[in-house]
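Need Aminotransferase class I/classII large domain-containing protein's 3D structure for a figure. Predict it.
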Amino acid sequence: MAPKALDYDSLNENVKKVQYAVRGELYLRASELQKEGKKIIFTNVGNPHALGQRPLTFPRQVVALCQAPFLLDDPNVGLMFPADAIAKAKHYLSLTSGGLGAYSDSRGIPGVRKEVAEFIERRDGYPSDPELIFLTDGASKGVMQILNCVIRGEGDGILVPVPQYPLYSATISLFGGSLVPYYLEETANWGLDIQDLRQSVVQARSRGITVRAMVIINPGNPTGQCLSEANLREILRFCYQEKLVLLGDEVYQQNIYQDQRPFVSSKKVLMEMGLPFSKEVQLVSFHTVSKGYWGECGQRGGYFEMTNIPPESVDEIYKIASVSLSPNVPAQIFMGLMVNPPKPGDISYEQYIRESKGILESLRRRARLMTDGFNSCRNVVCNFTEGAMYSFPQIRLPPKAIEAAKKAGKVPDVFYCLRLLEATGISTVPGSGFGQKEGVFHLRTTILPAEEDMPGIMNSFKKFNDEFMEQYEDHRGYSRM
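Structure prediction for Aminotransferase class I/classII large domain-containing protein:
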């Protein structure tokens, strides 16, 4: 009997190739254990509110009023909501064509795109065109839209940093393209070597692959490093020489935990490079309301901005966006509020600053607590988390542990992470889910657990790790770089 379209054997093969470690085997096992009543600390996803981060008050007040506009007509509204939140809600409702229940333009509400453009201009010091900004359901949807336009078939390659966030490997598989890895150097604080980049392109071309785009994640996920301006200039010059479109994943730009390397956008560096680069290099930059000190992951709000993309191509990208009719409208309001927050003198300004500063300062302390905690453990080394929301320690597994993993039919770092989960309830993601050098093993954890819980979590990790190493160590040496 002929198979039906959604029988497993007749599914699109590209769908079966997709791997997504962040919600993979470890997450599924953690969910099972949670159902059995075990306390699980989900550090596998950068999901701040799920780990207890409180939402910022002002944006929630504004969106609450936009969601329930009849409250604006209530004579007591001023007792519940500050005047600036009321004014802001009226402002955003006036930009919509029927409130939050109506579709917007497929690129997003024009007034909000204008606010995004003004934010980019303030940040970079260079003009931004609202017509080249698309609002999206989180940054991930924007990345998928652009990759869908770039990838024409398996002969097309996308340069992706390894370790990488699996959105990229999964989407490239889904659209039938080829991932071309370039390795970040752990011993150089996850820096990028331009010679390695060239080598990756040469090797891909020798296999008949046309490299068409390059992805950078800055600050890095899962590695947490911040790219220097010098590094960004090298990357942009490389994209110019190789005629690559640069996809700048900059969703963690507000998450910086040191002062030596502040975040600098790819767009700003490109504009400062001047001609011919500033008019020739194609760049698409992504941002979101899910990260920073907002952490509004469930709202699904994001944007991308296009630089040096021909008008005909922009029209085609608009056509693809139109297939979904409209991005999520409440999320567009969140995006407007993120790029245009309360200003000095506004009633809500001091509370907004107090809340956002409190979150960022706590994240900075947690980044230090976690890095120091890992580095105090036997056979664990971890670069400091300069930015983003993750630690990516290297676990130097004894040979006996690697043998035990093979016997169990598991990748060694999956074996270690499963044992960690069963012993402590800490749900992490194995480094193999992001890519890593042969024979080197990592895990990724968020720095998001509540600050008061962090010492207990790190003690629990240390106790497990010491016992694991004691069990498998025979002093013959370890996996190492």
